Amino acid sequence: MLELRPHHILDIVRNVGNGRAIAPHEYGHNLHLVTESIVANVDQPCALVGRNDDICGPCAMLSADRSCRDVLRQLAEPVSKQDYNDALDRRIFCYLSLEPGAVLSVRAFLELARADIDGIVRICTHPKEDPESRKRGLILGMAKLGILASDAPP
Ligand code: SF4
Question: Which of 4, 75, 111, 123 lies in the 20 to 30 Å Cα band around 93?
Fold first, then answer.
């Protein structure tokens, strides 16, 4: 069963919607493999976790203590990606009234997010990311995965 940070699922759906290539990353993490798995079966169960996950497994930035040593450099004051991700996923758990460790299908998680896409965009848009691009990607990605009608306005 997949173990994923909730924001990683939302990033994947945005990428799918925006047509981003599914390819290995220079860090060596599993984003491309998990993306392929979700596209192939959005009904598979997933444990939602507030820590580093199945995407991080082989990542060059994952330390021996399983913390992320990467840094978000797009902010005026660079921020630890571990701290940023932990805070972001806490916001998502709280917003969707979920607890870390909850097991549900990827589809069920996305249906919760679908209920308030504007709110999800507000709390999930990364620094320097265009919120409209994130919203468009989420809507188109959910349509591709059968979570939203394909004629939903982006
Ligand atoms: S959160 Fe950190 S360890 Fe996980 S995939 Fe991203 S850069 Fe790698």
Answer: 75
